[in-house]
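Aim 2 progress update. The chain analyzed this quarter is reproduced below.
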Amino acid sequence: MNVQNIKYLLQKHFIENGKKELSAFAILFVVSFCVPESSLILVFIPLYLIFYSVGSFRVFSDSNKGMNYLMIPASTKDKLIAAGILNHLYISLAVTIVYIVSILARQLFNILVLSQTAMDYSFLYPLNFDFYLTIIAFQTMGMFGAIYFKKNALLKIAGSFIVVTMIFAIIDLILFFILVRTNTDVYTNLFAYNLMGNVTELTTSIVFKWFDTILTLIFIPLFWVLSYFRLRETEV
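Predicted structure tokens:
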């Protein structure tokens, strides 16, 4: 790992994309000031963060730009580390800060103008570990897809996201039926049964939560490794 190479790649990114990203932050501020928090959290922010990661290697959609990028005197590892810093740290932190500041500004406006009684910090609840872990997983997939798919990358990556989401849903469904059908002491405390023996309430979702978390933690390094070898193969 060469720190100077990583620094150069980061500086190159900000020189080429700084103004566009500042404009995007301004739009995010205005949108989050006007749109209900739940809608913004569940739709706009995750999509922006994921598609930002796809743009990390969008140069490969153009053969000339791709060739110029490959000629940058930096190792494959340095390029991936720079992309990881931009995707997992910089943009996630920047978008989160803009979002929080805009919501607090709106609440302050409501207090001063519309007589809102107090600040409400419930909008911070969705910004938890699971939220960012899921986004990071899709970001790594987006990075790999941008390297792997040369043409129509965005459409193909979107299709891949749908397939992966369906796989997660099918696995969760299979796990659910396994737990329901297995009437043992191990799983008795997981469900509340009514008199007909049907599941009426899931008293804890810890099994599903940890299963999805572990699966996601496997996906992240897997796609990082795949991205490394695919980028290295492209350089060769």
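Residues 83 and 180 are 43 Å apart (CA to CA). The radius of gyration is 22 Å. These observations will guide the mutagenesis experiments scheduled for the next reporting period.
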